[in-house]
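Teaching note: in complex prediction, the entire set of molecules is handled at once rather than each chain in isolation. The prompt given to students was simply: 'Predict the structure of this complex.' The entities are:
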Amino acid sequence: MQVMKDKKCIVLLSGGLDSTTTLYYAVKNGYKPICLIFDYGQRHKKEINSAIKIANLLGLKYFVVKISLPWKGSSLLDKKMRIPRYVRKRQIPSTYVPARNIIFLSIATSLAEVYKVQYIFYGANQVDFSGYPDCRKEFIKSFEKMINKGTKVGVKGGKVTVVAPLINMTKSEIVKLAVKLGVPLEYTWSCYRGGRKPCGICPTCKLRYKGFKEAGINDPLLV
Amino acid sequence: MQVMKDKKCIVLLSGGLDSTTTLYYAVKNGYKPICLIFDYGQRHKKEINSAIKIANLLGLKYFVVKISLPWKGSSLLDKKMRIPRYVRKRQIPSTYVPARNIIFLSIATSLAEVYKVQYIFYGANQVDFSGYPDCRKEFIKSFEKMINKGTKVGVKGGKVTVVAPLINMTKSEIVKLAVKLGVPLEYTWSCYRGGRKPCGICPTCKLRYKGFKEAGINDPLLV
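The expected output is the structure of the full assembly:
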């Protein structure tokens, strides 16, 4: 990766494996990240605490943005809905939160304008879990075009760039990269449920399990 | 305007002249709007109350979404900054809130997905106050493209459409349209300050004054 002159960046940090690996990747490449964490009414607060712990571990500035959406429409928000055990290929699961990542990236764009930051790091991945439309490269390109037309920085000749270093990696490649970068895997939280231990049966637990297994690495959360 | 089969819509409602006229325009054209109101830390709450009053007057469903942005960067958010008295041509004023309308439209997109609504009405206007990059037609087209790539409804062959009926109108044309549609002008609030009466000196007060004057109509707020 080319090292840039202006090394400030924003990292969308959920405290999960992908976003934490993205954060460590940015640090490794000489960026000085501001972590952006969202409290948007998710089912459990455990991931917010994980994200804060990780930002503190690296001594990084972070912001927690609170959004109160008065509607649900996703099993990640609505405790009355069941989190699915299986997701069929080409199906968009009920854990999809309508337009969530678009909202997150828009808020990151606001922060980027205020703090004069060009780069937004986004841990999206289109390989192993392509059910989410907002995790595809095609969407990211389109989002970049839109913000550069709709912001002051864009029309004044500046630029906001969304960097998604994991976009084409498999989950096992992400696990290997995380280990190489020294990500504190024991601090990350991927499970859609917020118990003491990962539930092991939700789609993201299964995907994480598969990734660690294929990488030949033990998940410290399961020890 | 062509009358559509699915007549539900979402209207971004700030309680100002433009968004209220947009709301009445939607109703006049047979739409059943859900009003979307934002409490995002603006300088005063008066516009939120105006918006709620207008939604109630029409007996419409509304949502107030609260967003806590832990940064400022705009004289509309930061009481320590001065609201400008003049805005030069081609200048983006300090009242520009970084990426605000992108965030609002993204949240409207989430509501559109959850409530299965195709149309988002947006009172943007590029003629009289083109300092804001997110009030231009070019931005709106680009935003539509992005959401139709990044949402479930978009990739499943549906569509979210942003309708901006005032986009090419002058302020005096908007005032005339408002009168024709029966907009309760005395309920609308445009002033960037939140006093008992409009301040008369902020850019939006001046623009409103000019619009009413050119339309030959008395502004009930100034009586």
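Point out the following to students. Helices of chain A lie at 17-28, 46-57, 100-114, 137-150, 152-155, 171-181, 203-215. Residues 8-222 of chain A form a domain with the Rossmann fold fold (CATH 3.40.50.620).
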